[in-house]
Amino acid sequence: MLKSSFIGELNLGDTAFYTYEVTDGERPTTVAFNxxxxxxxxxxxYLSNQITDPYFEWPLSSHELDAHIIKKxxxxxxxxxxxxxxxxxxDDYDITTLDTFNYYQQNNxxxxxxxxxxxxxxxxxxxxxxxxxxxxxxxFAEQIAYQLEQSLG
Length: 153
What we know:
This protein is of the alpha+beta class. It has helices at residues 2-9, 28-36, 42-48, 62-73, 76-81, 98-106, 119-129, 141-152, and strands at residues 18-21, 83-88, 95-96, 114-118, 132-135.
């Protein structure tokens, strides 16, 4: 909500966000330093991506992701064998829960267009979807910091 209200009030004109791909293990402070030339702008990285929980809304490194999956499923092998939902073979966004899938089977409703999604694959896909972030152009960093200070002041 802060992004839409605060950033919307900024006079950035037609300036588009810059798309940045986070590499494996890259931290938000590294992105801030590399893009804005200061780790002091890490908050701007979070703000422009509506990140409120940097531990779980930021892409995990491969090691961190494996640890998260093991904690959640018990082991990588279990995650690779555990069906968590089904998706349509026609539309990746058409997700069917396990309960709905079971209901379909019990009531002889066709499920041939559904394919299983395993826990491991879901976690990897979710993590990868977080890699492309948006950054406010660096030319506006000081202006945004000033305007935020004024609005909080």
